[in-house]
Amino acid sequence: MAKVLLVDDDDLLRCILTEVMISQGYEVIEAADGRPVADMIIREEPDILITDLIMPEQEGLKTIQQARALRPQLPIIAISGGGRTVSTDFLQVALIMGVNATLTKPFDHNQLVALVDQFTGKAKAA
Fold it and tell me: How many CB atoms lie within 10 A of CB 114?
């Protein structure tokens, strides 16, 4: 069973996405911001990282940078709805930083599942 590390400060969205991924046969570990992610990558050895970009404690771009330093081949999906006060397109910056895919909130949960399936190899095994 592939393991998903899901990082988002929105408790409701994180809960919904966790349930969606579990229903598709994935194990999910969660974080409410990027601070614990480096330790979780080492300890939990996830197969994929899904991270929000705009979070209050440690934002997603730093989280992506840390993840790439620890596990350069770890697939990463960046998700974001954009900021309230900043017009920078953080998803484009995430792509430049080497994430495997991006999704703009709100997105269809099936899109996320399809990407996770693709990057974890589940799509080929199905």
Answer: 14
pTM of the model: 0.92
Look at residue 7 and give its three-state secondary structure: strand
The pLDDT tens digits of the residues spanning 25-36 come to 999 999 999 999
- CA distance linking residue 55 with residue 57, whole number of Å: 6
Strand ranges inside 3-122, DSSP E = 3-7, 27-31, 48-52, 76-80, 101-104
Cα-Cα-Cα-Cα dihedral sign, residues 75, 27, 106, 65: negative
Say if residue 106 is preceded by a cis peptide, omega within 30 of 0: yes
- In the predicted model, is pLDDT for residue 89 greater than 90? no
Pairing of strands 76-80, 27-31: unpaired
Which domains can be identified in the chain, with CATH numbers? 3-125 (3.40.50.2300)
Contact 4, 46 (CB under 8 A): yes
Strands (E), the chain: 3-7, 27-31, 48-52, 76-80, 101-104
